[in-house]
Amino acid sequence: MSIDSLPPLREVIERHGLMAKKSLGQNFLFDLNLTAKIARQAGDLAGQTVIEVGPGPGGLTRALLAQGANVIAIERDERCLAALQEIADHYPGALKVIPGDALEVDFTQLANGSEVKIVANLPYNVGTQLLIGWLLSEPWPPFYASLTLMFQREVAERIVARPGSDAYGRLGVLAGWRTDAKITFDVPPQAFTPPPKVTSSVVHLVPRQSPLACDAATLGRVTQAAFGQRRKMLRQSIKPLGGEALLQKVGIDPTRRAETLSIEEFVALANAL
């Protein structure tokens, strides 16, 4: 079943010579039913502004537009721009394509005061970096109403991880502190071209309106130090930030390891720092 009257993605990719580039972290989704399922995880999109990062040939873009969204797409690969222009012509006034690197984009300025949703099959090589930037953005509540993002399954598990689990780390602390995050469904490798070596997962994150009071940048520093040497005791891993003295200030045993601390304890450390 087609979601629109545009040509199949395989045909578009062949016509424009859009073979996925490993250097750009590209893995294309051809199944438009699957891209529509991803878009639906973001909720009702009719009349909503959606920012998409790395649209590639536009499979997810088409699904978002078919559900009534106004899409701002950021694409670094100039080879994809002609294919995206064809989609823009099919949906007049509903798709704006911004050529460039998403890591250099001011997303708050892009939102321009209106509430947006971010929906993306993120390039593997920048996905985590982008997410951390969105989680640490100021002011809070943020410029976005939700994030609906695809990651490698391993990264998705780190985002929703809880204290004490092997996957718990910096991502779990930051995402758990500021958002309600959940994995909505998995996508097998064979759904992509070229197929990655791992399963992917779609994660939906909704910002908490009133997270625990804490300076975001300081919490970022504390978690980076603590999990940067996660096998070591906290008195050693956060030594550059105050070590044992800082831990004693908030009543945390210096011999504990980072993965045993709750989000509340990390916030207390950041506030003490």
TrEMBL record:
Catalytic function, reaction form: adenosine(1518)/adenosine(1519) in 16S rRNA + 4 S-adenosyl-L-methionine = N(6)-dimethyladenosine(1518)/N(6)-dimethyladenosine(1519) in 16S rRNA + 4 S-adenosyl-L-homocysteine + 4 H(+)
Pfam families attached to this UniProt entry: RrnaAD (PF00398)
Compartmental location: Cytoplasm
InterPro entries per the UniProt record, alphabetical: KsgA/Erm, rRNA_Ade_diMease-like_C, rRNA_Ade_Mease_Trfase_CS, rRNA_Ade_methylase_Trfase_N, rRNA_adenine_dimethylase, SAM-dependent_MTases_sf
The EC number(s) this enzyme carries: 2.1.1.182
UniProt-recorded Gene Ontology molecular function terms: 16S rRNA (adenine(1518)-N(6)/adenine(1519)-N(6))-dimethyltransferase activity; RNA binding
Ribosomal RNA adenine methylase transferase N-terminal domain sequence ranges: 34-209
Positions bound to S-adenosyl-L-methionine: N27, L29, G54, E75, D101, N121
HAMAP family reported for this sequence: 16SrRNA_methyltr_A
Sequence similarity: Belongs to the class I-like SAM-binding methyltransferase superfamily. rRNA adenine N(6)-methyltransferase family. RsmA subfamily.
Function: Specifically dimethylates two adjacent adenosines (A1518 and A1519) in the loop of a conserved hairpin near the 3'-end of 16S rRNA in the 30S particle. May play a critical role in biogenesis of 30S subunits.
NCBIfam families in the cross-refs: ksgA
The name this protein goes by in its record: Ribosomal RNA small subunit methyltransferase A
Organism from which the protein derives: Phyllobacterium pellucidum
